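Journal club prep, shared notes

We agreed each person brings one worked example of a sequence with its structure written out as tokens. Mine is Angiotensinogen. I'm keeping it raw so we can talk through how to read the token line rather than staring at a rendered picture. Sequence first:
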Amino acid sequence: MNLAAVLLCLLVCFTAVTSDRVYVHPFNLFSFNKSTCEELESQVQEGKKTFVPISIESNSTPAYEDDLNDKDKLEAPSLNSWGRQKLKYMKNFVYVLGVRFYRMLQKAQQGQNVLLSPTSLYGSLVSFYLGASNKTAADLQRLLGFVPPSGDPDCTSRVDGHKVLSSLRTIENLVKSGDKDLLFSKMLCLFSAPGIPLYQLFMEDLLPSADALYSRAVDFRNPREAAKQINAFVEAKSEGQSKCLLTDIDPSADLLFAVDVHLAVNFKQASQPKEPQEFWVDSNTKVLVPMLSVTGTFKYKTDASGTFSVVEVPISKTVLLVLLQPINGSDLEHVESQLPLESSAWLQELSPREIKLTLPKLTIEGSYDLQELLANMELPALLGKGADLSKISDGNLTVGKVINKAFFKLTGDGTDQPEEPAAETEDVVFLDVTLNKPFLLAVFEEKSRTMLFLGRVTNPLH
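Then the structure, token by token:
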């Protein structure tokens, strides 16, 4: 082989090895390309097929629902190099938007427990993006964090919502991957006014976004009866997990959207002390709550000003729990006001420490109307009466509530633990970390480090 051929061979090999390191703009990982732009034109006629949801009072299961909830069709993409790059950027988009929503709730619900699911809220907006056109689609794309690197007017300047939902579903499947001590479920429901046709393609597009997808017709003109019917339906379909989804309904609405996400973890390494322990709701109020105790090597830090500490604990094979508590006399309200949550710096630079951790057993939930959150962000028109949702239905839809309900439960295996860690020796000193006053929590999927839940615990008994 001559020298030129050898050099050519080496160049090809080097290119193959380093090709995965080529920078790709995050927008291009999720956008349409030229070939898919052409395919979109051929899907126009297919997208016009409609169906009318059956009444919520019907006991039958519609044929379209059997197809939609066929679990064999829920195939998550593999985590190849492209998939990993997508998740790297997706976690940042989810985090930024989730924190923005949390800031709204932090102000509106001072002194109360708060729990939201950034992945669920983000997925809800992506769902409406798939049903939107023109300015509404552009505004939703911008809110989701996708800004095209160039101003090309064709469809390559648009994000492919299917790719985004697929990445979100990959994260959720990673959470559920073979861990028997964890239960994760997500249910999506669309309730429409009687006789309103919905595009079949839109419903099929939502398939990757939940474990179960239901669509029913409800007469919103009687708000009290409609709320009663919807609550009963959701409770039955969730097998009693979700109760009291709604308290009121806008009678002028044509569409109501609801997502219910549950995560329950049995933290096997944690034990439960025999006696409840004190938890200070505020400086004057204490309650007795069941606690969990666990000893091990966990990541930990205190901030430079000494006002809060952060500990990261793997509570299952696929889920991390991050706990932030005020220290040295500071309170949570002060920490929240000073903490730049918009930056993920508070989650970084943690170091391994030998820790004895004591925290409350947790059962916390939150239910929020995305419409209200958008209004608080001065975006009331985004899904308002003027929104172009012409890919959901051919009529002018009025979207009512967009409910996102989140539930997180943490328990231990119920056994008692010795007063002092068995592993403690003269050479090992365990840091005692006890969460006995209001604190922040965040739950992450372990591989991608995507934030699944973000919340505040002011009283574990509520």
